[in-house]
């Protein structure tokens, strides 16, 4: 095979634009094999200082003995009174739940000796089914965040709240001051979305006791979605969908698999309908930026954000007016309103007629999703109402479009709050669940509006933007320390239970509300009778939520064990109200650059910005870490002669921000995309100073926050910043890496595009008498969400290295997801491929280790023995899959608090040691030993690896290949499975299953699937 | 000449000594750094001889998790107090124990058998395989003060694992992961 051939750009797979363009720098890089270089001059100077400053997640080796000391004397301090359910060495699991943005996830928290160390998905939960998101994992490190407030705080402010001194407060004093102030009247509560019915009940009692007005604000605005849902279906709520039943899915500037609404649930549903058979769904994405959803599209088209409404209207026009089909075919008023969009298809350059045909083919089994979250356009509410109409026209209501469990969203918006506050009618403001000073643009004049408010109380957990500005900070618990409940979209009730004693002198927001309500003149009976928030919650469950048979106490224990009470019927009836649809004119053409804000999968709204895992989480699309940047299309970059990393200035109104440019294949021309969540001030030692705050670019239009579809100034600057990207390392170009098939071909012959080799070996074959562990990764299920990366990081004590060292290729993730583009960079197809250690039978690493630090076990795993390793890095050099990671420095110097998150079952690694994926050998052993103690055989499915457990789409199967009935053995030997780089005869224990696209023809000229110039022909070595 | 002979003899002696030392070291004749014989003073003079020997209390009465997890576990004080609520309450040591129990502060025992962090020794599997506690810990029932009687070196572990009758795994990852 000729690798150089593959560096040409004819429809081959490519990883970066440097490769596609044949950049000399890229070719040099590709030939170097490693980006990592040995110690450089600057190391040890600012490098050490930076790491010292970052205090990143790592490992500890405090117990090393010194030559002159006889032994490290250690103490054993047993419990004085051991709790009966704690056995040292056996983890305890607590079923709980977690709310991330607008999504509720069922989780199981693993605790050891009273410390939560890992979060996994709760398989009992009907929506997420054990799946997790990357962010849900990271939540554990927020608990052990050394920058958290350790108690309530009081800010001594000057009148304008511009200068202040933060002092510690006592809860009693804080309560006294707050209650006194609340009694004056004119109080307001600014709440983020929370979905907790018991908290709602308590808030209701609090508001009644003090006559408090309720306002709603989320850092990521869903106001337009709620109002459009109200207009469409009569109730102010968020929508809920069943994507598993949809055969045609059209997403219009909607990242439902990545960041929109409930992505983990959606990913799980999406993969259910993604099985490669005749019922396989088809995903059509029309979008401006390259989103995670876009990378999973079968067909993908590009538009500008301002054209979002035109696309939905154009589709409606095709269906209602041109094709005269669906529910509204004879609706004269609608038809005449839609005729304005007659030219849309032509103007947009989209095959709207074909897309409409696809949708009509599957009436009642299709779904149109629109709505941009933080990237909402001016017309967001109209877009969503029109998409609702489209779904109604297609007969999807009640089938793929469901009613979401009612949540309480009553209350006015942030605009009303600002007006009221400025008018002086608000004396006290309590802010919970959002960070408005950070996420509102300065143009909203939040700070100025608050001048007449006498007291601001904030419930945040750190000295962040809003906390600096508040008079009191009633520091809230971390959710892992707190009781709560949750109703997920389908109506299931979940419990959130504390898994650790509060680490600091913090107090649950609900306990604060309870304490303050008790101070009111006439609190409600249930507040009076509840000593703590826990009492209130339990009583609320007893009275309003618990519907099971038997006594409540028995039922309560069952709820705590399972963590979830599944809803009996999924969703309710929906009837779309035609009046929700409002006419609009096609968008005017915008010259120059349009803005499109977006959320990154890792950082989201910025609330987890101080979690180093999230900062070093490779963005699933760009693969960049530690920064935000201005994404522009390759064509724009070429026209404006902008290089990767060159600074640009974006101007929206009076706000100017300067960012490095990132050239993003597949992005629409004339659009600049910027991620929010960066540019934090006071969030902590990791988050502060990383990136720029793109929330500042938001404009208020008709009282709504608009983050996309308006013209911004765009200027090229001379400065340059390197963007740390994990992509250009460990190249695999030119070989059979990802195999794709069209659905037709796949049904005819699964795995037909796989080019097979039949190899003989000179090595003595290994004998596996007992187990032989293996894994199958289904590329067709993988959406690239990256949940597995963080699951692995959390499970295996994997450190974070910082931007500087990622730039040198020293990131430490054991599991990485390679993302390849194929075809034209204007609008390429994308594939994601998780790469773990392949645990080869003929492992190249084993043969070259001079000290036998990496060896083969009799169960097929390739073991890395840290204490033998002397750090020659030969193994990494010889590994064709480039999965080995080297500890260049001691990344272990982390605050003691963060050490509490370390998994005691996995050795923490020191400087100079190689490490890599172990197949979660400690989890294998734990279950093997358990079976042995219980005198039984291991069952298939007993052992799950961390990545497998976390995967929301079930794309990873692990188990015993020697058991012919195991799921993994069946999948491993399936026709559609293939090993990576089979021609090297490494005989990996990991197989991949082909990716199937529901298209007629794959992108590219076909040559790219033509390995060695022979298509799918077997040959022998 | 004599100087040369003397020099040669010294050099040979040194070489021989070094060889002998390394031979002994690598053939388990001598061990260094393994703390065999380590017998530190404990904060309370707990006697295994009295409890396990004379009174014949089963090891697992106190070391409760030895058959179920990796750790044998040093007993929590509530186990001591099962008897010492009433037994020998006039002893100053028992009074100290009671105080540690009541205050919740516990007692910091000196760790005797210490393996490095990268070694994952599993007690429960050895109990399951029918090994006796005394095989590794010596005749505890005769010790007034607990003492490390085996080297607990890797060679010592592996020697036993290699015996065919033990049918024990010898993968590196058996203990290191």
Integer-rounded radius of gyration of chain B:
22 Å
Count of helical stretches of chain B: 8
Structural class of chain A: alpha/beta
Biggest interface, chains and residues, is: A-B, 41 and 44 residues
How many strands, which pairing sense, and closed or not: the largest β-sheet of chain B?
none
Strand element count of chain A: 43
Output the radius of gyration of chain A: 28 Å
The span between the termini of chain B is 58 Å
Unreliable residue stretches of chain A: 1-10, 36-70, 1009-1021
Instruction: Determine the N-to-C terminus distance of chain A.
Output: 14 Å
Helix content of chain A: 25-40%
Commentary on this structure:
- The complex is a heterodimer of chains A (1021) and B (177).
- Chain A has 34 helices and 43 strands.
- Chain A is of the alpha/beta class.
- In chain A, the strands form 13 sheets. Chain A has a seven-stranded mixed beta sheet, sandwiched between helices.
- Chain B is mainly alpha-helical and 177 residues long.
- Chain B is built from eight helices and one strand; from the N terminus they run αααααβααα.
- In chain B, α4 packs across α5.
- The longest helix of chain B has 25 residues.
- Chain B is elongated and about 80 Å long.
- Chain B starts with a helix and ends in a 16-residue tail after the last helix.
- The model of chain B has no long low-confidence stretch (mean pLDDT 89).
- β2 of chain A pairs antiparallel with β1 of chain B.
């Amino acid at each position: 095979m000729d690798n150089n051939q593959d560096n040409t750009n004819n429809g081959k797979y490519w990883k970066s634009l440097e490769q596609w363009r044949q950049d000399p720098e890229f070719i040099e890089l590709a030939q170097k094999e490693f980006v990592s270089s040995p110690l450089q001059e600057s190391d040890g100077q600012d490098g050490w200082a930076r790491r010292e400053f970052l205090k990143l997640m790592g490992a500890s080796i405090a117990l090393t003995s010194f030559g002159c000391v006889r032994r490290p004397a250690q103490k054993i301090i047993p419990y004085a009174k051991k709790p009966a359910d704690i056995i040292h060495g056996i983890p305890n699991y607590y079923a709980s739940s977690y709310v991330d943005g607008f999504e509720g996830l069922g989780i199981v928290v693993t605790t050891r000796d009273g410390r939560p160390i890992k979060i996994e998905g709760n398989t009992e939960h009907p929506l997420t089914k054990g799946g997790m998101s990357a962010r849900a994992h990271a939540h554990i490190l927020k608990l052990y965040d050394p920058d958290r407030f350790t108690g309530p705080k009081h800010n001594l402010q000057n009148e304008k709240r511009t200068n202040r001194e933060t002092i510690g407060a006592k809860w009693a004093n804080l309560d006294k001051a707050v209650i006194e102030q609340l009694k004056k009247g004119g109080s307001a509560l600014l709440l983020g979305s929370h979905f907790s019915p018991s908290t709602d009940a308590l808030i209701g009692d609090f508001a009644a006791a003090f006559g408090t007005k309720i306002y709603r604000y989320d850092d990521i605005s869903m106001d337009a979605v709620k109002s459009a849902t109200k207009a469409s279906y009569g109730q102010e709520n968020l929508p809920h969908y069943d994507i598993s039943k949809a055969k045609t899915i059209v997403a219009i500037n909607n990242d439902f698999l990545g960041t929109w609404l409930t992505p983990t649930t959606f990913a799980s549903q999406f993969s259910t309908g993604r099985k490669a058979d005749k019922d396989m769904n088809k995903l059509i994405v029309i979008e401006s930026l390259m989103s995670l959803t876009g990378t999973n599209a079968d067909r993908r088209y590009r538009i500008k954000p301002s054209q979002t409404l035109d696309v939905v209207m154009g589709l409606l026009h095709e269906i209602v007016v041109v094709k005269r089909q669906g529910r509204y075919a004879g609706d004269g008023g609608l038809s005449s309103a839609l005729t304005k969009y007659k030219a849309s298809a032509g103007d947009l350059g989209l095959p709207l007629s074909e897309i409409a045909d696809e949708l009509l083919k599957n009436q009642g089994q299709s779904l149109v999703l629109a709505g941009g979250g933080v990237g909402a356009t001016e017309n967001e509410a109209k877009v969503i109402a029109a998409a609702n109409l489209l779904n109604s026209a297609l007969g999807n209501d009640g089938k793929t479009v469901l009613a979401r469990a009612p949540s309480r969203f009553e209350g006015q918006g942030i605009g009303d709050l600002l007006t009221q506050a400025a008018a002086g009618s608000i004396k006290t403001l309590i802010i919970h669940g959002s960070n408005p000073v950070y996420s509102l643009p300065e143009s909203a004049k939040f700070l100025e509006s608050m001048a007449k408010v006498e007291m601001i109380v904030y419930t945040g957990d750190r000295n962040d933007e809003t906390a600096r500005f508040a008079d009191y900070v009633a520091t809230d618990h971390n959710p892992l320390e707190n009781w709560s409940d949750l109703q997920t979209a389908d109506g299931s009730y979940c419990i959130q239970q504390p898994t650790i004693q509060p680490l600091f002198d913090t107090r649950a927001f609900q306990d604060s509300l309870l304490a303050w309500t008790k101070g009111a003149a006439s609190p409600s009976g249930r507040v009076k009778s509840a000593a703590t928030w826990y009492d209130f919650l339990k009583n609320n469950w007893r009275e309003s939520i618990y519907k099971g048979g038997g006594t409540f106490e028995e039922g309560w224990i069952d709820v705590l064990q399972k963590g979830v009470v599944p809803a009996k019927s999924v969703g309710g009836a929906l009837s779309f109200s035609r009046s929700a649809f409002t006419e609009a004119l096609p968008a005017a053409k915008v010259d120059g650059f349009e803005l499109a804000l977006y959320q990154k999968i890792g950082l989201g709204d910025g609330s987890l910005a101080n979690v180093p895992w999230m900062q070093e989480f490779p963005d699933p699309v760009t693969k960049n870490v530690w920064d935000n940047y201005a994404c522009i299309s390759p064509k724009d970059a070429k026209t404006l002669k902008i290089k990767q990393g060159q600074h640009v200035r974006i101007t929206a109104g009076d706000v100017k921000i300067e960012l490095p440019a990132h050239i993003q294949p597949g992005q629409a021309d004339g659009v600049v995309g910027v991620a929010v969540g960066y540019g934090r001030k006071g969030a902590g030692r990791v988050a502060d100073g990383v990136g720029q705050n793109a929330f500042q670019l938001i404009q208020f239009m008709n009282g709504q926050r608009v983050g996309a579809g308006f013209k911004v100034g765009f200027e090229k600057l001379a400065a340059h910043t390197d963007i740390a990207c994990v992509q250009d390392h460990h190249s695999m170009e030119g070989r059979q890496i990802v195999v794709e098939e069209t659905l037709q071909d796949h049904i005819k012959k699964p795995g037909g595009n796989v080019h097979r080799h039949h190899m003989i070996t000179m090595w003595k074959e290994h004998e596996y008498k007992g187990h032989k562990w293996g894994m199958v990764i289904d590329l067709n299920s993988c959406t690239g969400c990256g949940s597995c990366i963080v699951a692995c990081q959390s499970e295996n004590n994997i450190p974070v290295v910082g931007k500087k060292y990622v730039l040198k290729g020293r990131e430490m993730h054991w599991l990485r997801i390679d993302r390849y583009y194929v075809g034209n960079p204007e609008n390429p197809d994308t594939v994601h491929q998780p790469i773990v250690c392949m645990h080869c039978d003929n492992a190249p690493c084993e043969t070259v280790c001079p000290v036998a630090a990496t060896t083969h076990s009799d169960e097929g795993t390739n073991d890395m023995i840290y204490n033998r390793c002397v750090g020659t890095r030969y193994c990494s050099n010889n590994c064709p899959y480039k999965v080995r990671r080297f500890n260049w420095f001691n990344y272990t110097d982390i605050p003691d608090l963060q050490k509490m998150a370390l998994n005691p079952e996995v050795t923490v690694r020191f400087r100079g040691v190689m490490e890599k994926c172990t197949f979660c050998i400690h989890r294998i052993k734990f279950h093997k030993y358990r079976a042995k103690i219980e005198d039984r055989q291991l069952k298939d499915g007993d052992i799950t690896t961390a990545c497998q457990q976390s995967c929301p789409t079930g794309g990873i199967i692990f188990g015993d290949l020697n058991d012919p009935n195991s799921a993994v053995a069946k999948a491993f030997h399936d026709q559609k499975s293939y090993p990576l780089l089979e021609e090297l005869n490494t005989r990996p224990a990991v197989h991949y299953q082909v990716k199937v696209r529901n298209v007629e023809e794959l992108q590219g000229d076909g040559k790219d699937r033509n390995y060695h110039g022979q298509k799918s022909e077997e040959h022998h070595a | 000449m004599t100087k040369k002979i003397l020099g040669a003899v010294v050099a040979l002696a040194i070489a021989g000594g070094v060889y002998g030392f390394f031979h002994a070291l690598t053939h388990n004749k001598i061990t260094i750094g393994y703390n065999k014989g380590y017998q530190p003073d404990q904060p309370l003079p707990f006697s295994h001889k009295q409890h396990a020997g004379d009174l014949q209390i089963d090891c697992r009465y106190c070391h409760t998790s030895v058959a179920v997890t990796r750790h044998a576990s040093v007993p929590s004080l509530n186990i001591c107090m099962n008897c010492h609520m009433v037994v020998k309450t006039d002893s100053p040591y028992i009074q100290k124990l009671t105080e540690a129990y009541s205050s919740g502060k516990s007692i910091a025992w000196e760790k005797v058998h210490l393996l490095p962090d990268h070694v994952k020794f599993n007690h429960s599997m050895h109990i399951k395989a029918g090994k006796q506690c005394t095989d590794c810990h010596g005749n505890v029932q005769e010790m007034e003060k607990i003492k490390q009687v085996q080297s607990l070196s890797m060679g010592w572990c592996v020697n036993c694992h290699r015996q065919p009758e033990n049918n024990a795994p010898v993968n590196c990852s058996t203990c290191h992961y």
